[in-house]
Specification:
Elements: H1 23-26, H2 34-47, E1 51-52, H3 77-80, E2 90-98, E3 114-123, H4 128-142, E4 150-155, H5 165-176, E5 189-191, H6 193-196, E6 197-199, E7 207-217, E8 235-249, E9 252-266, H7 267-274, H8 287-297, H9 305-326, H10 335-353, H11 360-371, H12 383-413, H13 416-423, H14 429-432, H15 438-456, H16 460-473, H17 480-498, H18 515-535, E10 541-546, E11 551-556, H19 563-579, E12 583-589, H20 590-595, E13 609-615, E14 624-627, E15 643-651, E16 654-660
Parallel strand pairs: 1-2, 4-5
Antiparallel strand pairs: 2-3, 3-9, 4-7, 6-7, 7-8, 8-9, 10-11, 11-16, 12-13, 13-14, 15-16
Helix pairs in contact: 4-5, 8-9, 8-11, 9-10, 9-11, 10-12, 11-12, 12-13, 12-16, 13-15, 15-17, 16-17, 18-19
């Protein structure tokens, strides 16, 4: 069985001592571990005057528009809009992120749900010349990538903004230093808004601008005969420099006085290039997990495409699940918990296809924890808690799969006419007459899957995989893509009835800074302090969620509040609102902020300098003070009286309260 050590070069770090930037020229094979890549990236930009931001939780704090943090720039929205950042105008970080919208693509050689984003930012400081020169210096001089295999793209221009000629000229100059004539259409490619423009949203006041992507050619040796946009199989995007130089107005896009740079690059994809792989799962970010799956299943990763795809999905999902659990997400029927449950249940199903009967996700937790202890030092200490969480969910998943699969089996084993007659409960005249068209078959299977989804909580994707198995093993004649389309349509119609007015809740955008959300953000600070004064200092925030309709606050407390306690907390919040206290902030060293009693999330990582928001005339006599990036109202008089209308226990020693104006 092939293992990680059998892949040539992945452990040659200590063997090769190189001169940066000369490897591609000398033709020396060199494979860099992801940990060294991170160290090099952070060090490179620190030398250029950047301050490192912490790697924050996947659960966005105080943002109702985002289910999970999906990029490194998530915490920086207020500062890109002009607010001063406590660490200055040059920032760099590595941020764990989750994007699950493309779940169906997981299983190919490059897509993953959880990933790490390499980011650097200029907040009104340097711009295109510095960013592009530094980025390519990092790629070629620091990492030793071959400039002959790097292909940039730029914005071609339209009615909103002109062609990005400045970036084109800078890129030509960069490549000329390596003896490469960077011609348009051969080395540098021009694309429209779909590929080379980024904007935060469509509303007036939103930021936007052209971007320049960098692609690495991973195809066969020789000059490629295609371009990055038309040949995604051979070109891998490794970084994107966004130039936020415009603001949307009533009359279109206008130049900003503060021009920002927002760079993002996929860490795992960069490692894939550096380790000379065409399969991201063969890199050090995934291969140890694949090895463990091989050991448990007794199968080889390379024995078939079906096995390879199943192992990729299990490896990807297990890594994502550990990161989510590390950040406090538990399996549930709603929102973030549902995503974790869905991923864990998919692991269980696919493990069965590999012949694995044991608790597969539990078995992989230890491997993931050890792999990433270099980045998350406290992850190994959480291993037992995560394993217990996964074990309980696997038990539930297996019971559900067994129960529903037993219901599905009779349908897959009966003749078509009988299948459809049962599904439609003998109510379809065409079925009764003996005519079973392909359309009726697809609609029938879709209805069956939807019914199981509603009655048993059986995921539609699991049902589709049941049909896939039946199609292969029992020669079931069914158009699965059409079944999927109809079933999802039925499900969407059902959801629409229960979510009127909430279509934008988790649209995957950036922080909601509407007036009402900002008010609830400030009210949450007042609520935490009121709870502490009424219930005791053991009360500490463990989570929150704010929408335009209400606030939700999770905190440490062992029982529900009595009616008297609820009234006292509410009165304390509302009396503070009536006083009309100013809401201010100061930027302080983290240790000093802790000493003066500013509250903070215990499991959160913070930079050495933090912003402390306080309610009152001064920090010394403030009603509340917390580590927070904002935004907030300027005075509590802007708030309305708060009503605490619901409370619920969410676990041992954890309570959740809901409030609204």
């Amino acid at each position: 069985m092939r293992g990680f050590d059998s892949h040539p070069g992945l452990h040659k770090l200590a063997v090769i001592q190189r001169t940066a930037g000369n490897l591609w020229n000398a033709g020396i094979e060199y494979f860099m571990k992801t940990q060294e890549l991170v160290q090099k990236y952070i060090s490179f930009f620190e030398e250029k005057g950047h301050k490192q931001l912490p790697n924050v939780s996947l659960v966005p704090e105080g943002d109702s528009t985002l289910l999970f943090v999906n990029s490194g720039m998530f915490p920086l929205v207020p500062y890109l809009m002009g607010e001063k950042h406590p660490l200055g105008t040059r920032l760099v970080n590595i941020q764990r992120s989750v994007r699950f919208e493309d779940l169906g693509e997981i299983g190919d050689p490059r897509h993953t749900i959880a990933f790490h984003m390499m980011g650097n930012w200029s907040l009104g400081d340097y711009f295109k010349k510095e960013q592009l020169n530094w980025f390519y210096e990092f790629l070629i001089e620091s990492l030793g990538l071959d400039p002959q295999k790097i292909y940039p793209s730029v914005f071609t221009g339209d009615e909103d903004a002109p062609k990005d000629r400045e970036s084109i000229e800078i890129l030509k100059e960069i490549f000329s230093r390596y003896g490469i004539e960077a011609k348009l259409g051969e080395r540098i490619f021009e694309y429209g808004k779909k590929s080379n423009w980024w904007q935060r949203g469509d509303a007036v006041g939103e930021l936007g601008g052209p971007d320049s992507e960098a692609f690495y050619y991973i195809g066969e040796e020789g000059k490629p005969e295609s371009d990055p946009e038309g040949d995604e199989g051979n070109f891998l995007e490794i970084g994107n420099s966004v130039f936020l130089q415009y603001k949307k107005t009533e009359n279109g896009w206008e130049e900003l006085p503060q021009k920002n740079v927002d760079f993002g690059g996929g860490l795992e994809r960069m490692a894939m290039v550096l380790q000379n792989k065409k399969d991201i799962f063969e890199t050090d970010n995934f291969w140890p997990i694949i090895e463990k799956i091989q050991e448990i299943s007794g199968k080889d990763y390379y024995e078939s495409e079906e096995v390879k795809k199943s192992m990729r999905i299990i490896a990807d999902h297990s890594r994502a699940c550990v990161f989510l659990a590390m950040d406090g997400v538990s399996p549930s029927k709603k929102e973030r918990g549902y995503v974790l449950r869905r991923l864990l249940r998919r692991i269980v199903r696919l493990s069965r296809l590999l012949g694995i009967q044991g608790d597969i996700s539990v078995e992989l937790v230890g491997t993931v924890c050890e792999m990433f202890r270099w980045l998350y030092s406290d992850l190994p200490s959480k291993r037992g808690e995560i394993e217990a969480l996964f074990k309980d969910e696997e038990r539930r998943a297996k019971n559900l799969l067994a129960r529903v699969s037993k219901k599905v089996r009779p349908f897959t084993e009966k003749p078509e006419k009988e299948q459809m007659a049962i599904i439609f409960e003998n109510g379809n005249e065409l079925v009764q007459s003996g005519f079973v068209s392909a359309e009726i078959m697809s609609a029938g299977w879709a209805k069956l899957g939807f019914d199981f989804h509603q009655s048993d909580g059986y995921a539609l994707e699991d049902f589709f995989e049941d049909l896939e198995i039946a199609k292969k093993t029992k020669s079931l004649d069914v158009d699965i893509p059409e079944v999927c389309r109809i079933a999802y349509k039925l499900d969407e119609e059902h959801k629409q009835k229960s979510r009127e007015g909430a279509e934008q809740k988790f649209k995957g955008g950036l922080a909601d800074q509407s007036e009402q959300v900002v008010k609830y953000h400030t009210a949450t600070h007042l609520l935490q302090e009121a709870l502490r004064r009424v219930l005791g200092d053991h009360v500490r925030q463990i989570g929150s969620n704010i929408t335009g309709e209400r606030l939700r606050f999770d905190f440490a407390h062992d029982k529900k509040l009595t009616q008297d306690e609820l009234e006292r907390v509410t009165e304390l919040v509302n009396s503070t609102i009536k006083k009309g206290l100013p809401v201010k902030f100061e930027i302080l060293p983290k240790e000093e902020a802790q000493k003066i009693g500013a509250l903070y999330l215990e499991n959160e990582q913070y930079p050495e300098t933090v912003k402390v928001y306080y309610t009152g005339e001064s920090l010394e006599d403030a009603f509340s003070k917390e580590f927070c990036g904002g935004p907030h109202v300027e005075n509590t008089a802007e708030l309305e009286p708060l009503e605490l209308y619901k409370q619920e226990r969410i676990g041992e020693g954890k309570l959740r309260v809901y409030g609204r104006f």
